[in-house]
Amino acid sequence: MDLILGRFADSEIASLSEIELSELERLIDAPDPDLYAALTGNTEPNAEFAGALFERIKSFRVADHNA
């Protein structure tokens, strides 16, 4: 998860609002297996993960990393 979230943060952190930064911190603290499964589409995201920032990270991962 460090690679996915780290690359996203490196690329997008300057454009994140304070609320989005808080959401990103929450996602960083989430259990890796749960978050990874949701980001890869293997499971639906938990309600605590779901939202615009989660979708932005998911899109970033697919668009930039062909995964």
Give an account of the 3D structure.
The chain has one domain. The mean pLDDT is 88. The chain has 4 helices and no strands. The protein is mainly α and 67 residues long. The chain starts with a helix and ends with a helix.
Descriptors:
67 residues; mainly alpha; 4 helices; 67% helix; globular
Morphology:
globular
Total strands: the figure is: 0
Main pleated-sheet profile: none
Q: Report the average pLDDT across residues.
A: 88
Helix content: 55-70%
Count of individual helical segments? 4
- Helix and strand content put the structural class at mainly alpha
> What letter string, H or E per element, gives the SSE order?
HHHH
Rounded radius of gyration (Å): 11 Å
Estimated share of beta-strand residues: under 5%
Which residues form runs of ≥5 with pLDDT under 50?
Answer: none
List the helices and strands and how they pair.
Blueprint: H1 2-12, H2 18-29, H3 32-39, H4 52-65
Structure summary:
This protein is 67% helix and 0% strand. It is an all-alpha fold and 67 residues long.
